[in-house]
Amino acid sequence: MKTRREFISCGAQTAAWLALASGMTKPHAAETARLRLGSCMIDLPQAKAAGLDGVEVNVGPAADRLQIADEAVRRRYKEQMRETGLAIPSLMMGLLNGAPLAADPRGPDWLAQSIDAARDLGAQTVLVAFFGKGDLLDAAGKVKQQDVDVVVERLRAFAPRAKEAGVTLAIENTLPAAENIRILDSIGHESVKVYYDVFNTGVSKGYDVPAEIRLLKRRIAQVHFKNGPRYLEDRANFFEPIVAALKDIGYAGWIVLETSSPSKDPVADARRNAEFVRRLLGRDAAA
User: Fold this and answer.
1) Overall domain count for the chain
2) pTM
3) DSSP states of 205-258
4) Is residue 85 within 8 Å of 121, Cβ to Cβ?
5) 256 is a domain residue
6) Where in the sequence is the domain holding 269, given as residue range(s)?
7) 236-248 and 266-286 are packed helices; what angle lies between their axes, rounded to 10 degrees?
8) Cα–Cα–Cα angle for 257, 32, 93, nearest 5°?
9) Residue 74 to residue 68: CA distance in whole angstroms
């Protein structure tokens, strides 16, 4: 949600969200319509030009010391945030797709570096990726239980550090919601949740995305919207029930656009996709 415009409204809004958290009510549609939109495909100045609210930043390639752990790198990001007025809501550990958390001995240190960097940048979420070599499903679609056991152990060990830093470790993978819930229950810590990518689950895997969202509920830390090489609006019927499900669970985090650029103009295409999502939120609000 955006910063509240008037201090006098703080009490009323706080009461509304407390009621929501207790399961007494659903959020007003206007709250859903004000979800902040970011991108993980363009930089902060480009996001500013596209009318977005922030950017998800990659921690860098596999190395003993991650790029994001470099104070000079973070200083440049902070300067860009001041110049644009935008935020960095999350960091993305894409390197784990080639150097899996379950197998690479540097994985725990990468978690530590990413958590500390997120705290310094004011990012509340660290995306912990499980694709490619790090996929938790084998070629036959069965869970790699040995890998899952290592992942659970490592995330459990760093969950307290994440909580102290005000950071959520958000696992993004190809598993169905029920399997992710099993993993989260095994970890047993509020600072580890799910980063839900609606395309990876709904299009690539064929899962019922609205049903999964309603099952995961507040275990969703952040959401990716994408549509392969096409604009989001080209699959409007796919996204409409997803937005309705996000509203039903009271989701108030970021929607991060992991979108391509069909026109080869990344700023114009990011703006077009963001405008579609905002219209969709508005239509959902008016329903």
Assistant:
1) 1
2) 0.87
3) S---HHHHHHHHGGGEEEEEE--TTS-GGGGHHHHHHHHHHHHHTT--SEEEE-
4) no
5) yes
6) 34-286
7) 60
8) 35
9) 6
- Cβ-in-10-Å burial (0-12, 13-18, 19+) of 177 comes to buried
The beta strands (E) that lie in 71-124 are given as 90-93
Name the amino acid, one letter, at 267: V
Decide if 24 is inside a domain. no
CA 52 to CA 117: how far, in whole Å? 22
Tokens found for residue 123: 């990012």
Digitized pLDDT (tens) for each residue of the chain, 287 residues in all: 444 333 333 333 333 333 333 333 344 444 544 689 999 999 999 999 999 999 999 999 999 999 999 999 999 999 999 999 999 999 999 999 999 999 999 999 999 999 999 999 999 999 999 999 999 999 999 999 999 999 999 999 999 999 999 999 999 999 999 999 999 999 999 999 999 999 999 999 999 999 999 999 999 999 999 999 999 999 999 999 999 999 999 999 999 999 999 999 999 999 999 999 999 998 543 33
| 20 within some domain | no
Is 4 a member of any domain? no
108 three-state secondary structure: helix
Instruction: Match 């899962």 to its residue by tokens.
Output: 207
Q: What is the CATH number of the domain that holds 248?
A: 3.20.20.150
Helices assigned H by DSSP within 86-194: 107-121, 145-165, 177-187
208 in the Ramachandran plot: left (φ > 0), alpha (ψ -120 to 50) or beta? Answer: beta
